[in-house]
Amino acid sequence: MSARILDGKVISASIRERVRAEVEQLKPRGVVPGLAVVLVGENPASKVYVGQKEKACLSAGFASFLHKLPASTSQEELLELVGDLNRDPAVHGILVQLPLPPQIDPDTVISAIRPEKDVDGFHPINAGKLLAGLPCIEPCTPKGVMRLIEETGISLEGKEAAVVGRSNIVGKPVSLMLLAKNATVTVCHSRTKDIADHLRRADVLVAAVGRPRFVTAEMVKEGAVVIDVGINRLEGGLVGDVDYDAVAEKASWITPVPGGVGPMTIAMLLQNTVDVAAGRL
Ligand code: NDP
Questions:
Q1: pLDDT tens-digit map of 224-235
Q2: What are the domain boundaries of the chain?
Q3: What is 31-115's CATH superfamily?
């Protein structure tokens, strides 16, 4: 079998187009969706992500509020800015780019964001609601993963799903979302014995490990849907957590890296922000 490609660029472009149309519809109500992005320090990857998010905001017709703070910023200073953004009615969504410098505790900062403006979906209130199956702002990358799976037209009900990785920003939430769609979910991590045994059962496999080409063809069931969240910077460029060429021979659907989950994450950030601005979330 040779896999069909789940093209995140194409799918995200249509979502972004729809978001732009929603922005136009909000105009007569005097509402312009506003996203505040806070970058602390000089992390090169973070700078790239923040630049992409700002560009996407502007092209969607949002108001973009970019706050670049020096690496020496204290936690108090950052919390003060978050407080200001919480109170600013022009700001519908607040995103503090991670990682933060060592003097700042990311959990404290995320918890300080008003849950209603937490368009990253990382606040414990939103994470708890996701766990409880209540409506909430869902985290962007897992939401993008689910949207890609939806695009295949394959129902998750009763399917075996395996997730490699259990981080709070990808692995855990995506596992909960798969469970909510009635998949039988196995979550693998660094202490899992015989990962291949688990993965080979999976009709849907989500890799969020952060290790280049971790998932090899031998670990993949014939005909599986394979979603690669990983972004690993190697000398030759970006590669995912999946050994793409070999796995594409076995999978029924696969996401490329780059051009798969990455663009979906940004599209979902825009979607979350416009949903908040429109009063839907
Ligand atoms: P983390 O480092 O927070 O989590 C990695 C997870 O993988 C952990 O749960 C860890 O297990 C598990 N893991 C690590 N090594 C192994 C191993 N050898 N065998 C099995 N499991 C292992 O990463 P993130 O979740 O933040 O991100 C994962 C990847 O996704 C990264 O490449 C990141 O760059 C990318 N990413 C991409 C995004 C996008 O928009 N496309 C957005 C966010 C992330 P344990 O818990 O036991 O330590």
A1: 999 999 999 999
A2: 31-115, 139-261
A3: Leucine Dehydrogenase, chain A, domain 1 (3.40.50.10860)
